[in-house]
Amino acid sequence: MSSVELINQHNISQEMLCEIFEDAYLSVVKSEKGNGVYISERYNTWFDIDDKKKEYIRFSVVLKINLSVNEQDMNRAINEVNKKYMMSRAFCNANTVEIDYYLWVNGGIDKKNLIFTYKFFSIASTSMAQYLLGCNVLS
């Protein structure tokens, strides 16, 4: 029986995550501004680690909003997408809509779980973005 190395709050690092994603043939890009790392696919998926306790990995996608949409229509679309896709959260933040998901690492997760979670988030966030595009709230 083979032993599986677990990712947990004691050994997790940004470098470790980059290596795991690259080993899974994902395109990992360091921000030119030096403030983060993302996976480059249809929508860039940022990933970061809880700075204080290192208890979770946060995946997020940031999308530009259509500035001509009124606040009521924006809120209605955001609320509807949150009802349809409960596993992730969408919210307005200044001139953007952000979609995120938290993967808790307490007790440990394996590399396969990390990759599957990213892939699932990628599918869900793409569907959420497509729904919001259909509501004309994204630019």
TrEMBL record:
Name the domain of life.
Bacteria
Instruction: List the InterPro entries.
Output: Put_sensory_transdc_reg_YbjN
Q: Spell out the protein name for this chain.
A: YbjN domain-containing protein
